[in-house]
């Protein structure tokens, strides 16, 4: 089925001017960028987004990192977009990421790992709604 997923190009990547190179990987994989904006999150906004990780030891560090530099939030659309995006991103830890994936090529560490992607249809819907209104999604 055609799906939509929420993608974030993270501070470590925007800082190194990698937005275009990462978008090229998404587009080459057949994903269409149907919404996109560059924003600077506050720690509080990052905290709400990553609420499910609140009890994790890395939560504070994660929120501070996500607020440290601009991010590019985007909606990717395509056949099986959620799984396809996760394939293009590679494993969370760049040390485990397959060659050619975004994280293998660009991520600096498990925390500063260049991209985020929704992990399931329910989280994709919630994460898209956190950043975008329906009017901003242009398929
Ligand atoms: P993401 O897919 O955005 O979802 C949660 C994020 O937490 C993850 O990518 C990493 O950036 C971060 N994360 C996961 N594990 C660790 C860890 N052990 N230390 C620091 N950050 C982590």
Kindly describe this structure.
With about 140 residues, the protein is an alpha+beta fold. It is built from seven helices and four strands, in the order βααβααβααβα. The protein has a four-stranded antiparallel β-sheet. α3 (about 45-50) crosses α4. The longest helix has 11 residues, at about 120-130. The chain is globular and about 35 Å long. It starts with a strand and ends in an 8-residue tail after the last helix. The chain binds adenosine-3',5'-cyclic-monophosphate (CMP). Adenosine-3',5'-cyclic-monophosphate binds near residues 53, 58, 62, 111 and 113.
- pLDDT averaged residue by residue: 98
Provide the helix percentage: 25-40%
- Largest sheet composition: 4 strands, antiparallel
Strand content: 15-25%
| Largest sheet strand order | 2-3-1-4
Shape: globular
Q: List cofactors, ions and other ligands.
A: adenosine-3',5'-cyclic-monophosphate
How many H/I helices? 7
Span of the ends, CA to CA: 15 Å
Structural class: alpha+beta
């Amino acid at each position: 089925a055609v799906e939509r997923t929420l993608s974030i190009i993270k501070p470590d990547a925007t800082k190194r001017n990698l937005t275009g190179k990462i978008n090229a990987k998404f587009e080459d994989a057949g994903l269409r960028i149907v919404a996109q904006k560059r924003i600077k999150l506050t720690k509080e906004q990052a905290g709400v987004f990553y609420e499910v990780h609140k009890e994790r030891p890395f939560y504070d560090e994660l929120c501070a990192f996500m607020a440290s530099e601009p991010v590019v939030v985007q909606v990717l659309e395509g056949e099986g977009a959620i799984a396809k995006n996760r394939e293009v991103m590679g494993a969370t830890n760049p040390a485990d990421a397959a060659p050619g994936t975004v994280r293998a090529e660009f991520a600096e560490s498990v925390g500063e790992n260049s991209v985020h992607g929704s992990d399931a249809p329910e989280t994709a819907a919630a994460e898209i709604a956190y950043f975008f209104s329906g009017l901003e999604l242009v398929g």
